[in-house]
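ugh ok fine here u go
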Amino acid sequence: MSTATKPNHIGRKISRIRELRGMKQEALAMELGISQQSVSLIEQSETIEDEKLEQVAKVLGVTSEAIKNFSEESVLNIMSNTFHDNSVLNGVLYNPTFNPIDKIMELVDENKKLYQELLKAEKDKISYLEKLLNKK
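structure:
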């Protein structure tokens, strides 16, 4: 039997932090200026160059040390704590910085505005076509 410890798989840690941040591979790729496939390869890698790790950490809003020291146990500890201030634990900001409902309402308002603009454009088009028909 082997008593070898589980390897410190940086790629899996990056993947988990990205997921906890609610970020898709495509979004991380876009921020890093690389392809989604490259992000997938990073997340499959046991190790990553320090320079690339720094870039990934910056986009994820954590430190490279936070990625290296990340564990599911620390996330569970954060979630079970009852802190109500904007504290940072293990380099990860765990209080949301926005209200998701506010974001949804912003999108609803934006959709209404776009719908009104589209409706106006259609009415203008109909009016223009009616003028053309009346001239004939």
